[in-house]
Amino acid sequence: MLDHIEGCAGSPSLSRVTTRFNGGTRIQFKGHSYFLL
């Protein structure tokens, strides 16, 4: 399941950045943040 939790339109990074927190995976892609449960 992929939930869109927030949008950061000001992010210059287009590459995908993943960070683990709260037992899940946060994915930042094209200025948008997603939370993979």
Structure, described:
This protein is mainly β and 37 residues long. It contains no helices and 4 strands. It starts with a strand and ends with a strand.
List the helices and strands and how they pair.
Layout lengths: L1 E6 L9 E5 L2 E6 L2 E5 L1
Antiparallel strand pairs: 1-4, 2-3, 3-4
Quick summary:
The protein is mainly beta and about 35 residues long. Helix content is about 0%, strand content about 60%.
Quaternary status: single chain
N→C terminal distance = 6 Å
**Shape label:** elongated
Strand content: over 45%
Strand order of the largest sheet: 1-4-3-2
Q: Element order, helices and strands?
A: EEEE
What is the tally of helical segments? 0
Helix content: under 10%
Annotation, overall tally of beta strands: 4
Low-confidence stretches: 8-16
Question: Helix/strand-derived class?
Answer: mainly beta
Q: Which whole number gives the mean pLDDT?
A: 57
Keywords:
single chain, mainly beta, four-stranded antiparallel beta sheet
